[in-house]
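COMPLEX REQUEST
Ligand: iron/sulfur cluster
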Amino acid sequence: MTTLVGQMGTTDSESHRVNLLGLTKAQMIEWIEGQGLPRYRADQLYQWIYHRRVRRFDEMTNLSKALRLEVAARAEGRGGKLAQRSASQVDDTVKYLFELDDGERVESVLMRDQGRITLCVSSQVGCAQDCQFCATAQLGMKRNMTTGEIVSQVLQVEDEIGARAITNIVFMGMGEPLANYKNTLAALEILSAADGIALAARRITISTSGLVPAIARFNREKLKVGLALSLNATTDDVRDRLIPSNQRYKIAGVLDVCREWAHLTRRRLTVEYVLLRDVNDSRNDARRLSELLRAVPSKVNLIPFNEIPGGQFRRPDDRTVRAFQDELTRAHLVTTVRNTKGDDIAAACGQLRADYENALIQIDAPAMASANPS
Ligand code: SF4
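STATUS: Structure written out below.
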């Protein structure tokens, strides 16, 4: 048991119970068998926790009462607690703030668009990538989130809006998901497993700043999960400045490994491009972008920058955004401009961390029924 807890990184000095929230099926089996219990009990627990969204052992009715008590004495489900919710006044966007066991805070953003309900989740507390336009980068890197903390964002938002209401999940919140590779992959497994949270893999998207070795590794997993690349520049000079990892992984190499992903999965890469006034928003940039993407099955998502108070970048005007889009469309690239979803709560890829002290509408959320299922 100790090994398992250590592997998940979920030990709690106050608790000697194993944290079941975040265990993959294989890990659940390992723990159950380590308790001297038959393997099918792991299937049952896994289904209760993830598929049926039950977090109290006493509601797991196909376990005998004695077994429920036994498991409750040795295990629990912890993933942080919902501390606050901020609702946009201009659209349906809602931002959730979670407080983790160690007091760190992360955010998720819920967006509704054309019948889709998309939850944007975080994968790290802070981020080491230091993208210059990103509010999360200003936090620096604090730590990886555990698998349980990642998955818990989905379960707790469902508590608010209804089980299975979320139709899509994007890993575009705080952090670079591929830099927290093991926990992100375990979360993907739980989110997409038919007896887990059961969201179709193709409705889940991982967004990366372009870590080539991690994308190559991700390609080898042969998952049906979508991939988004936060590109944001068309020359290495500019990208070196905006995204420091570009100094190691140049645009050509990043696009090569993304092209390989597109071929392996037969899916189109989503290219995220944050438009920054007078930095990467010229017609020449648009032409270079269409040239770069000529051999990469892709679609482009343009994101006019959400200005950060006191920040060095500005948002381009609407005419510039339209001209940029037109140029790409002329080159037959499917291009969308991201609606300014939740602008007033600063929700956008890499720009999630608004000042939650100034949140528009706040609620004190009840603690997740995480704790100590009994
Ligand atoms: S944009 Fe994404 S990868 Fe870059 S610093 Fe922000 S959170 Fe990290």
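REMARKS: The radius of gyration is 21 Å. Residues 127, 129-131, 134, 136-137, 174-176, 209, 230, 350 surround iron/sulfur cluster (CB under 6 Å).
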